[in-house]
Amino acid sequence: MLPIIISHIPPTRGHNQSIAARSQGGKDDYNQWETVQKLQPLLTIFTTFKNMPDRISIHTNTIKNWALFLPYIQPVLLISESSPLNNIAKQYGWKVLNISETNEFGTPRLKNMYEDVMNATHHNSLFYGFCNGDILFDEGLLDTLMAVQFYLPLLTTPMMVGRRTNVNMSIVHKPDDLCQWEDVRQTEGQLFIDDAEDYFIIANAHEFIWDKLENVVIGRVGYDNYLVAMALRYNVSVVDVTETVKAVHQTGVDGDFAGQTNVDSQYNIDLIGPFDYDPGRTTHAQYLTINEEGQGIQIYKRPPATYFTKILILIFITMILILSQFRAYFFRHRRAS
Questions:
Q1: Which of 63, 137, 148, 179 is the most exposed place for a label (fewest CB within 10 A)?
Q2: Which residue intervals of 170-291 are DSSP H helices?
Q3: Phi and psi (nearest 5°) for 292?
Q4: Do 29 and 11 meet the contact criterion of CB atoms below 8 Å apart?
């Protein structure tokens, strides 16, 4: 791993200081930041919900969780129809906007969502981010935002992505008790694959490469890897924040691959056409964040996988396969004799 981008880091809060405490006035670590930001949110995060009975509790958890970050993070719900969740979101300080553009199946288009939210909020946030509506965050989200903000002059329109941890909601006995989520994540959660990305938090989002992108829809196969791969292609600084942002995916009855069961699941694949999606994995991001003991969150440059490294990995895998075959042959021969 290469040296960190810059040796100095911004002050971070103590781990024993909760978001609730900061919201009640325990904000010593943030006073300077608040003065600079003039109380405008650092991040505006937005999503949309499925209006389905079995998703109500999951989305309610999300509403309560994201509201904990106010006023530093402003949640926005984009809607296309009436739902009890709309009023719940408003009660918890969310903004509610209408969806302006969907495909013929009613699935929102990603670029339009960013444009609508930025215009409605008058571009008052440094970061704008779409996130799936079943994701819960820990306090590392706010700390990581502040770290990326500090390194901003050294990055190019940075976009934060990360892997999620799946938690089966059937084993959660108190789904509304959000204080338990870190324990649940550690004891019951499973870190998911590196090509499933649930959030895209972009700094100076109006400068992003929107004109290079097809108008893909959210939550359908391919849009996440396409967005990351295109960002890398056009030299956007993609930051893998998996290590410092603990994102919990609330797995419901529709499982961990719900987007693949929709009638328009292949919409993006057809829209984009031939494309190499593999570079769009979180592990291909040029940068990653690490919480260093006693130093706070650092951003490291991830060394690219060289041709020589790839050859070594291939040789190693081949050797394992050969040894496995040899072991199987040896035991068969031994039993036969």
A1: 179
A2: 181-188, 223-233, 267-272
A3: -85, 135
A4: yes
Are residues 261 and 336 both part of a single domain?
A: no
CB 79, CB 117: distance < 8 Å: no
CB 248 within 8 A of CB 135: yes
Q: Specify the pTM.
A: 0.79
Please report, rounded to a whole number, the percentage of residues in the chain having pLDDT higher than 90.
Answer: 59
Question: For residue 195, what are the contacts with CB-CB under 8 A and spacing of at least 6?
Answer: 224, 225, 277, 278, 280, 281, 282
Tokens standing for residue 235: 């030299």
Longest Cα separation, the chain: 81
User: Interior CA angle at 89 toward 76 and 133, to 5°?
Assistant: 60
**In terms of domains, do 135 and 196 share one?**
yes
- Statement to judge: residues 332 and 263 lie in one domain: no
336 and 287 within one domain: no
276-296 pLDDT, tens digit per residue, is 999 999 999 999 999 998 889
Q: How many CA atoms lie within 13 A of 110 on its CB side?
A: 29
pLDDT, tens digit, 9 for 90 and up, residues 126-142: 999 999 999 999 999 99
The verdict on 329 and 249 lying in the same domain is: no
Is 116 in contact with 128 (CB distance < 8 Å)? no
Please indicate, yes or no, whether residues 291 and 316 belong to a single structural domain of this protein. no
> SS3 for 226?
helix
Tell me: pLDDT of 35 over 50: no
Contacts of 297 (CB under 8 A, 6+ apart): 9, 12, 143, 144, 146, 147, 244, 289, 290, 291
Same domain assignment for residues 239 and 147:
yes
Which range has highest mean pLDDT (4-13, 45-54, 98-107, 312-321)? 98-107
Q: What is the pLDDT of residues 38-56, one digit of tens each?
A: 578 999 999 999 888 888 9
The whole-number pLDDT of residue 18 equals 38
Q: What is the domain extent for residue 117?
A: 19-304
